[in-house]
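Figure 2 data, in text form.
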Amino acid sequence: MRLQFDPGLAHQRAAMDAVLGLFDGAEAQPGAPAPTTLPGVVANAAPCSDATLLHNMRAIQAQAGLDTDDALARPDADGDHSVEFSLEMETGTGKTYTYVRTILELAARHQLHKWLIIVPSVATREAVLSTLRDTREHFLTLLPEVPYRFWAYDGRPLRVRSFATATSTELGVLTIAAFNKITNRLRTEDDRFGGQTPLAWVAHTRPCVILDEPHHYDSPLSKRSLSRLRPLFALRYGATHRRPRALIHRLSAAAAADRGLVKRVQVASVPATDDATARLSAQIHETVRLHVQRQALLAPRGIKVLSLLFVDRVASYCAPDGLVRTLFDKHFEALKGGCEALAALPAEHVRAAYFATKRRRGAPVAEAVETSGDSAADESAYQLIMRDKARLLSREEPVAFVFSHSALREGWDNPNIFQVCTLAPRTSRIRRRQEIGRGVRLCVDEHGRRVGDPEVDVLTVVPAEPYEDFVAAWEAEHDGGAEPKQRAPMPARAGDKPRSTAPVCASDTPWVEIDSDALIQTAGRYLAQADAGQEAHEPAPQSEVVGLAAVLLARMRPTIALTPTTIAAVVAAAPAAVRAPTAVANALAAALADQGG
């Protein structure tokens, strides 16, 4: 299975344009590295002055209807004049894709080649790396002029030396724990770094920094740690900002729901009881029942259904007689006959779990699974849940129920989570939103394509609290903050009909009169000519080719916007050997030129 990515989504483009607009008026950099005091270290150079940044930031804020700031936000008054900008993007709307594409666009336009992505946890790190792996081919097609390398810091300082001296675009992914203590290897003097610390070499590159889930970095310790990076600037991307500074883009939970960018949330009520075991049993039964019912309904459409269950205690699943695992096995065996795809599978084959290990004094900070006690099985579960999203989405993979406690609460998600069951009886508002956020991403089919059906894109929450209490807390979470007049739709009870959603499409490109039939024929001839001598290969999915070709064509012919239908007609008729975004865009550009466009 190969996940597909649409480069033309308006809400992602808006977030990217907000950042790119900060550097409007900046002179193009010639590509020479900025001078440093360390031989061989290649550094970022500031594309523009602080005055230009401030002017552009205020214009962006005013245009977006946000509060305008009178000064740039500086996280450390005693630091090296680093500045920060905040972007709010609701969970499930493609935040990681957006900031990776923004990184590559800034590298292409302003020669900003040294980037660090700071994450709060191993789960978030693995999610970011998964996106980087899944999008690599997509971005190399979209931005072929920006070769780039990504890596995760794994305790080996020599990776940092390569980062500091490389001349190509570098994306390093680090947890905050890798450099927030004086005992970290990154902060230990090393002869291989001329007697300096590896972190000092990083600081000399003046890296541009992405802060993923920035509410984790507001403590004095985190601020001091981040200042040691000496970032040129930091971009704060998150859905739950506590104190957004220099906010330049907002896609709130309410706006995302109104535009159909995330799943609609509904709530499944379970009978109220003071018996904890009876409550757990009722929640798990309802989650399994909904899962079996929905899988039977969606199987003909090639959609695999996943459920995520947050346990009340790790021991409830991991202990030999764990109550949650025992109850799940019982209810699954009783209900699985309602779906042909699940009927023949034993309970132990359809469940997997990931839990963070506890820190021990003197031991390295790490996270690992604690499922069966069998290290091979635990490693297999880790690989499946944390690193292989495509395999977990495959109908050939039997695992469909994922259990966790807090390790998957943030940073991890999967588009085909249709049920989220929260077994802990009391949770904070932020935790509630984080847990539900794991399942709000729009679903995909077995070919990795977004389904785009509001009747399908519905997330059912099975909470431990009564329906009325859940709704009150949910509304309080969505109404609090900077948009008190904009209310998110109230979660519906399970079984309610989803509201209708209309696609949002906006373009400022003027219409140009063209003969579409002639254009398709002419482009087809150019592709047929290009096919001569080409080695045959398996073509990419049509929807992905259409989206990428549209973006590439817009760069070549910015005043002309062809409809996806026209581009799709050219792609469908193209020989397999040249059914690629670049070839299609070139053929269309040539055909447009023939028509005088």
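Caption note: The two ends are 39 Å apart (CA to CA).
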